[in-house]
Write a structure and sequence with these properties.
Largest sheet: 7 strands, mixed
Strand content: 15-25%
Distance between the termini: 18 Å
Strand order of the largest sheet: 1-7-10-9-8-11-12
Helix content: 25-40%
Number of helices: 8
Shape: globular
Order of helices and strands: EHEEEHEHEEHEEEHHEHEH
Length: 296
């Protein structure tokens, strides 16, 4: 078969990407999207999409292969659940359910109850949602240990920008995943996120203040706050640059670079690398993954 990922139909003159052939290598596990791709009735499904992170929660409305009405909520479940109620303000008729990604297990049951109160099916996306598709293949010893959000990031990045690609998520933790030209997930990187570095300095020293996020990087620090900002931003950009260049060298590949997460745009400003920043890449994948899972 041939499949078109995430888009309900190709635009005029657009190139339709076709899935790679199944590999006979036992170490590579096939990950396909057979019921989403080139299946317009599934792309027409309308879903509430929720991505729960350690720092913030993103919610939006997925339909026709697109995510709209996106909110990034720093107030935890209380704020994010209110945004979901607002998305349902016109009634839940026409909504197929809540597509749910989370790295915070302690709130999962609350979100499941919230969906039940709204009268919507709750679809928790795990690696099992990927097990029947061919958009990605996993060359990974224990794929069940990969966070569903990381797989969603990679699936959406490959579909939107092609492969080879490195997709980086700038959240509480920094994560990067490498997908090679044959659309095989080869592994990833996990490092402390920018807020962890900032908070550790404050919590583990007697005099250093908590640095405010945002704002420009000074030429040099002429106060304690400026010195911290310079060290944090320049040092963090150096870490990201070294990770990306090392992966490119290890795989001898010129990767496309995609970034998401709440701190991506600020951290990457002036880094000198051709990153495409897409703050909704995780939500973009949540919709079709949940739709496929519901069809199984």
């Amino acid at each position: 078969r041939s499949f078109l990922a995430f888009s309900p139909r190709p635009a005029d003159g657009a190139t339709v990407r076709r899935s790679p052939s199944a590999t006979s290598c036992p170490a590579i596990r096939s990950v396909r999207f057979p019921k989403i791709l080139l299946c317009y009735n599934i792309c027409a499904v309308k879903l509430i999409v929720v991505d729960v992170g350690n720092t913030s929660t993103a919610v939006g409305l997925w339909s026709n292969g697109r995510v709209t009405r996106v909110s990034h909520c720093d107030g935890g479940f209380a704020e994010a659940s209110e945004r979901v109620k607002e998305l349902c303000a016109g009634g839940v008729r026409g909504l197929a359910g809540v597509a749910y990604l989370s790295v915070v297990p302690k709130v999962d049951a609350r979100w499941q109850r919230h969906a039940r109160v709204l009268g919507l099916p709750f679809v928790r996306i795990t690696h099992h949602a990927l097990s029947a598709s061919r958009t990605l293949m996993l060359d990974y010893p224990r794929p069940e240990t990969i966070g569903a959000d990381r797989l969603a990031d990679a699936a959406a990045a490959v579909s939107s920008y092609g492969a080879p690609v490195i997709v980086c998520d700038f959240g509480t933790a920094f994560t990067a995943a490498a997908v090679t030209a044959d659309r095989v997930w080869r592994g990833g990187v996990i490092a402390p996120g920018f807020p962890l570095m900032r908070d550790y300095l404050f919590e583990r020293t007697a005099k250093l203040p908590r640095m405010e996020l945002g704002g420009p990087c000074p030429k040099i620090g002429r106060s304690t706050e400026e010195a911290m900002r310079f060290g944090a931003l320049v040092g963090y950009r150096g870490m990201v640059r070294e990770i990306v260049t090392t992966l490119a060298r290890n795989f001898r590949t010129d990767f496309k670079l995609v970034a998401t997460g709440g701190f991506a745009r600020w951290v990457l400003k002036g880094i000198g690398l051709p990153f495409v920043v897409n703050p909704t890449v995780t939500l973009q994948a949540a919709g079709p993954l949940a739709a496929a899972q519901m069809e199984e």
